[in-house]
Structures are given as C-alpha cells and as structure tokens.
Design goal:
With 92 residues, the chain is of the alpha+beta class. Strands 1-2 form a two-stranded antiparallel ribbon. Strand 1 and strand 2 form a beta hairpin. Helix 2 packs across helix 3. It is globular and about 55 Å long.
Length: 92
C-alpha cells in the first residue's frame, strides 16, 4: 500500500473534490474548499472521499459510538440499526 505523502494531500483533495462535483456524499450539499476534509478509513488507511469537516467529524463520532455496543462489528451494528429504523411497525 502506498501512503499519500502529507505534501500531496491538498492536491489529492482538490482532484477528488472535482470528481465529486463538490458534493458531500453524506449530506448531499455543496462543499466549499475551506470546508473540505479528505476522509480515510482509520483501520485500513485507504482514502475514501471528501466530506464537509463537520460530516467527517460526525462520521468518526458515530463509528466510535457504534464500536462501544455489544457487536463485534460497528459497521454491521449501524446497518442493523438502519434496517430497524426503516422497518414498518405500523401494525404494532
């Protein structure tokens, strides 16, 4: 795995931001250059996409919160939570 050098992060972020048409994949709104954060997976180091700084911060807090539950896999817990939320309970 090749690591992105610190000196190359800003350029890579700008290239990725253009590929995304400056749209945050989480909140679906426009990212201004000063709000842009290059997101990465802390477990693998792989760069994902550019997010708003606030969305990036929220994503990290959510993953840390989910990791504190009884599940071995916080991502699976979040998938289960979403399925639980969207299920139709109107007949209860």
């Amino acid at each position: 795995m090749t690591r992105l050098a610190a000196k190359d992060i800003a350029e890579y972020r700008e290239i990725q931001l253009k590929k995304q048409r400056s749209i945050c994949p989480l909140c679906k709104t426009k990212i201004l250059p000063e709000e842009a954060a290059l997101d990465h997976d802390h477990a693998t180091g792989h760069v994902r996409m550019v997010l708003h700084r606030s969305c990036n911060s929220s994503e990290g807090r959510i993953i840390r919160w989910a990791a504190r539950n009884r599940s071995d896999d916080p991502k699976e817990f979040l998938r289960n939570l979403l399925r639980y939320w969207v299920k139709d309970y109107s007949s209860n």
